[in-house]
Amino acid sequence: MKKYIISAFAISSLLVFNNCKKNDIKNCIDIPIVGFSLSDDVSLGAQTAAQIDADAAQFPLVDSVSKPTAYRILYKIRNKILNSGKVKHKDDFPWRLRIINDPNTQNAFCTPGGFIYVYTGLIKVLDNESQLAGVMGHEMGHADLRHSVTTIMNENGVGLLLSIATGGNPGALTTMANQLRGLKNSRCHEIQADESSVLYLAATDYPCNSAGAFFEKIVASGAQTPPEILSTHPDPGNRVENINKKAGDVGCSTNRTPTNDEYTLLKRELGVL
C-alpha cells in the first residue's frame, strides 16, 4: 500500500497557540522560542538523525558511495534552494541529505536543525526535478521556521528540549523521536512551509509553484479518502490555490524548465524508473 505522507516530522496543532484563518498565515500565533538556541536545534536534530540512521529496519538508507549520482542530484537541488538568499538559517544548519529506500512510501521530512530525508517512493511518483525541489523546499521550510521546536516547546517546555539536546536525557530522546514521526503539522505551519517553498524557488531556475505538483496529483487521482498528510488541511486544492496565489503575489515564474533536469538519471540509479 502506498503511503501519502509529506512530513513525518509534522507536529499536531495546538489551537491555543496556533490559529489560522483560511489561506492566511498572518493569523498564525506561536509562543516565541526562548532559551533554545539554533545550535540546540542542530543538537536535537543530530541526535534524532543518529537514531534514524541506526534503524535500518524502519529506515533503510541508500548508501551514498554506491549511488553517488543520486546524491549529487539531490545535493544540487538542495544547493539551489540554499543559494536562493531566502533560507534564513542557511549557515546555521548542516542541511545534510539522506535517501530512504522505500518505494512504497511517498514521503520527505526534515528534522529540527536541518537533517533532510527523502524516500525513493516520493522520487518515483514525481515527474521531474522541479517537483522534487518544491517538496524539498517545503520540508526545509519547516526546519528553517523552527516549526517542530516551536510546538514541542509549547507542549513540553524548554527544559525537556534542552535536556535532550545536551544529551542528558536519552530515554526522552527515544520517546520524542518516536512521537515526532507520527505527529502532524498545524494548518498554519503547513501553509507557511508551502509559501516558504515558493519564496525559495523564486530565485532558482525551477517554477516557483512546484510545491503544488504533489497536491495536484492527489486531486487528479480522485481519491475518495484523503491521504493522511491532509488530515489537518483536508483539501489539497486549497493548498494548490494558496501556493499559486503566493506565486502571483511574489511575481515569480511558474513555467521555467531547468536546463539541467536530471530526473530520469536519478530515477534510473535508484531503480524507480
Question: How would you characterize the overall build of this protein?
Answer:
The protein has 273 residues and is mainly alpha-helical. It has helices spanning 38-54, 68-82, 120-125, 129-144, 147-156, 158-165, 170-182, 187-202, 213-221, 236-250, 263-270, and strands at residues 3-4, 96-100, 105-106, 108-111, 115-119. The strands form two sheets. A three-stranded mixed sheet has the order 2-5-4. Strand 4 and strand 5 form a beta hairpin. The radius of gyration is 17 Å and the shape is globular. It has one domain (3-270). Residues 4-26 have low confidence and may be disordered. Helix 1 packs across helix 6. It contains eleven helices and five strands.
State the main characteristics.
single chain, 273 residues, mainly alpha, 3-stranded mixed beta sheet, two-stranded parallel sheet
List the helices and strands and how they pair.
Layout: E1 3-4, H1 38-54, H2 68-82, E2 96-100, E3 105-106, E4 108-111, E5 115-119, H3 120-125, H4 129-144, H5 147-156, H6 158-165, H7 170-182, H8 187-202, H9 213-221, H10 236-250, H11 263-270
Parallel strand pairs: 1-3, 2-5
Antiparallel strand pairs: 4-5
